[in-house]
Design goal:
By secondary structure, the protein is of the alpha/beta class. It has 3 domains: about 1-45, no CATH class; about 50-110, Arc Repressor Mutant, subunit A; about 120-160 and about 175-345 and about 360-385, Ribonuclease H-like superfamily/Ribonuclease H (Nucleotidyltransferase, domain 5, 2-Layer Sandwich). It is about 40% helix and about 10% strand. The protein is globular. Strands 4-3-2-1-5-6 form a 6-stranded mixed beta sheet, sandwiched between helices. The chain has helices spanning about 10-15, 20-40, 50-65, 75-90, 95-105, 125-135, 225-240, 275-280, 285-305, 315-330, 330-340, 365-370, 380-385, 400-410, 430-440; strands spanning about 145-150, 175-185, 195-200, 215-220, 245-250, 265-270. The protein contains 15 helices and 6 strands.
């Protein structure tokens, strides 16, 4: 159209109400696309990177740097590419960075409005300006908070003292932990299906499992990564788009929480640094409630196993069902109250705090039952909070990024150190008999149940 107009660039842009710089960018992009077609008519797409692992590693590092609002120059990118190439044993790059830039459409400019723009002195300003704006633009049902928590998923009371204060950043005990991503909205009416991150992509316990009640991913440290974060947000964005909803998702600015371009239904907003204990609704009691419920379910099954003269074995698959049940048991009132405690409320605040229907979990009663069975909880309070300081992500070191890239290329290990947790196959007749026994059990009056 422009080529046939006989107008200058400036005149054409003005006549069509297009900003001059925007019009120049459009022409440049079109020229680039045209040149690619002319020079490479035999090929249907631009050439893929001959250094695929270096490409993935460098892109992962860029996402991390962007999440920290760190400036990225051409020289910095070149230096990082050489570091990754050296770590991965690749040859030197001749013209590689230029193609990398073209493939991923990178531009070297500072990002605005990201979490690293804040400091601890900005808490009041964030609440008075950013939060107020969010609550004016979105209904409470469309305001979501998301956060990870670490979980020692199979720690029983007799092992509590061994794990006291453990941050679990690697090594043997990392096999005992999972990372769980939770998200809920401001009025407590919607809890997003959790994501569980384990250490093994295909643990033995899931060998014959056709479906899970939640989402599962894995990496060598069972941590949240920028790639898993982006994949999860894009899945959520697709679901909200199908519902024709616009939502805001509030997250802390940990290293794994990168910005995600191209989201259509989610506005991603970061909390100020070092403010989660005050401003993060999930940290006001929601995660604590979820974990306490998980421990209760674990202890109940432990007591049942003792009564059957068996030893309780908890696999990742068991933990996934515990997690699903525990998250479903967190009440709407508990969630709504925790948002209010984090000062997520209407302006002016017109509603009183709801009476919380959270029932103190009967760990004391369960502890008594364990003592009657020659087992004990050394410290009931410690047991419920044993994993509150677990790491859920790491600084993006060269070695960690390379490890993540190499692991993503693997099929996933089946060599999990919990073969005793592999479920035995159950015949159809055994399953039907179990259902019949359960039906008879449920007919027994509650007063006569010896639970």
């Amino acid at each position: 159209m422009f080529q046939n107009s006989n107008l200058s660039k400036a005149a054409f842009a003005k006549a069509n109400s297009i900003p001059r710089t925007t019009f120049n960018n459009i022409l440049a992009a079109k020229l680039c696309s045209s040149n690619a077609q002319i020079c490479d008519q035999e090929r249907k797409r631009q050439r893929l990177s001959p250094y695929e692992n270096v490409d993935k590693a460098l892109l992962s590092w860029i996402k991390y740097a962007r999440s920290q609002n760190a400036p990225i120059s051409w020289n910095i990118l070149k230096e990082k590419s050489l570091e990754f190439a050296n770590e991965l044993g690749e040859s030197s790059f001749v013209g590689w960075l230029q193609r990398f830039n073209s493939r991923h459409n990178l531009s070297f400019k500072k990002l605005c409005g990201e979490a690293a723009d804040f400091d601890s002195s900005s808490l009041k300003e964030w609440k008075d300006v950013v939060l107020r704006d969010i609550l004016e633009r979105y209904e409470s049902a469309n305001v979501f908070n998301v956060d990870e928590c670490g979980l020692f998923y199979r720690i029983l009371p007799d092992r509590t003292l061994c794990f006291k204060g453990e941050k679990c950043v690697g090594g043997k005990k990392s096999k005992e932990r999972l990372t769980v991503l939770l998200a809920a909205n401001m009025d407590g009416s919607e809890k997003i299906i959790p994501l569980v991150i384990g250490k093994f992509l295909k643990p033995r316990c899931m060998k014959n499992c056709k479906s899970l009640p939640l989402f599962y991913d894995a990496n060598s440290k069972a941590w949240m990564t920028a790639d898993i974060w982006e994949k999860t947000l894009r899945r959520w964005d697709l679901n909200f788009s199908k519902q024709k909803r616009k939502v805001v998702l509030i997250a802390d600015n940990c290293t794994a929480h990168c910005t995600v371009d191209g989201l259509k239904s989610i506005e991603l907003v970061f909390l100020p640094p070092n403010s989660t204990c005050v401003l993060q609704p999930l940290d006001q009691g929601i995660i604590q409630n979820f974990k306490a419920t998980y421990r209760k379910l674990l202890l109940q099954d432990m007591i049942s196993a003792i009564d059957r003269k068996e030893q309780l074995q908890v696999s990742v698959l068991n933990a996934i069902f515990y997690i699903d049940q525990s998250w479903n048991m967190v009440s709407q009132k508990t969630i709504a109250n925790c948002f209010r405690h984090a000062e997520f409320h209407s302006y002016p605040e017109s509603e009183e705090l709801l009476e919380d229907d959270y029932e103190d979990l009967p760990l004391t009663e369960l502890a008594k039952k364990l003592r009657n069975r020659d087992s004990a909880i050394p410290d009931e309070n410690l047991y419920t909070k044993i994993d509150e300081d677990l790491a859920t992500n790491s600084e993006a070191s060269i070695q960690d990024i390379v490890s993540s890239v190499l692991n993503s290329n693997a099929e996933g290990s089946d060599d999990e150190d919990d073969s005793e947790c592999e479920k035995k196959s159950v015949s159809t007749s055994d399953a039907l008999k179990a259902i019949d026994d359960l039906r008879c059990f449920l007919l027994i009056p509650k007063q006569q149940m010896n639970i």
